[in-house]
Specification:
Structural class: mainly alpha
Number of strands: 0
Number of helices: 16
Largest sheet: none
Helix content: over 70%
Strand content: under 5%
Distance between the termini: 6 Å
Shape: globular
Radius of gyration: 19 Å
Length: 314
């Protein structure tokens, strides 16, 4: 497989995962703000912090309210990670790799792009936001289902898996870091109110609510939620599951040793927590270290398979 084709498959999968994750996060955060008591000071700007776009956002907007956050995360062209921009990147990468993906994928991507762009105001306005985001999520899942059921398990599939799970692992840590930051920045009185709903919403953002209950068989709290989303080996959105999928996908490709070592390094970095007090600044520091390690792993992927002269194979 040509290295440029491999890279485009990697990024098409990663951007598609980013579209779904963005829609999931906004939808669940909408529910969170609706369910929280008014005394708890949680704002829409937290979504900007989760996505690591504080500088870019503040350079454009002085008002950090809901409408501007929605414009930036869903539609803003100045934000390369916005939902619409990510969709356009999926479309462009698939356009140039149509001979190695299922033929129906091009049609489904075009349909999703047109729907998302034509109805973007529904996502920005609160009244129809849930329906809009749910339609986007379902379309992403339909595309991923098509890939899963009709794409050959060859090198191309391995690069799709690499892109999907690198992006998913990154979002997993960002969501947990956001919840930990909210916890550390609230008063004891606010925290008692916050804990009633925040960890349930964290699980729902990953569609993990029922799986958590079946696996953990305990009340939903910060410790059990973090342990589940970091270490459970069976649920497809936990950090450990994503890392093992990355390792498995890389093992089918040549010259994979460096990527495997990078994955093993992250897997070896664990954080022990026994009480709610352990979800603190040290925990945020641990998650930040994981995010930096994921960046290093992505760099290793790029250097191993994508940086070749024109015409070289990955």
């Amino acid at each position: 497989m040509l290295s440029r084709v491999a890279e485009r498959l990697f990024w098409s999968a990663r951007y598609l995962e980013r579209v779904e994750n963005t829609a999931r996060l906004v939808s669940v955060y909408d529910e969170l703000l609706f369910d929280l008591p008014r005394d708890v000071k949680v704002t829409w700007f937290n979504l900007i912090e989760i996505n690591g776009c504080v500088e870019e956002f503040t350079n454009i907007y002085k008002d950090h309210g809901e409408k501007n956050v929605m414009r930036f995360l869903l539609a803003k062209e100045d934000n390369p990670s916005s939902l619409l921009n990510s969709l356009m990147m999926v479309r462009e990468n698939i356009r140039t790799t149509r001979d190695v993906v299922p033929e129906e994928m091009w049609e489904l991507i075009n349909e999703l792009c047109m729907y998302a762009r034509n109805h973007i105001q529904q996502g920005i306005n609160r009244s129809n936001r849930y329906a809009y985001l749910n339609a986007v999520i379902e379309s992403c899942q339909k595309i991923n289902g098509l890939l899963t059921n009709t794409m050959s398990r060859d090198e191309g599939w391995s690069f799709v898996m690499l892109g999907r799970y690198v992006e998913r692992a990154d979002m997993n840590t960002r969501i947990l870091d956001s919840a930990a930051t909210l916890k550390s920045s609230t008063t004891d009185e606010e925290l008692s109110l916050l804990n009633q709903v925040i960890w349930a919403k964290v699980l729902k953002s990953q569609s993990a609510y029922l799986s958590f209950q079946r696996t953990m068989r305990s009340e939903i709290d910060g410790v059990s939620t973090c342990q589940f989303l970091l270490t459970d080996e069976a649920f497809p959105r936990t950090l450990v599951y994503c890392l093992k999928q990355i390792k498995n996908a890389a093992s089918y490709l040549p010259r994979h040793e460096g990527v495997v070592v990078a994955v093993d390094k992250i897997l070896a970095n664990t954080y022990s927590m026994e009480t709610d007090d352990d979800i603190n600044r040290d925990f945020s520091g641990y998650l930040n270290d994981i995010q930096l390690a994921l960046i290093e792993m992505q760099n290793e992927i790029r250097e191993t398979w994508f940086h070749f002269k024109r015409g070289d194979a990955a």
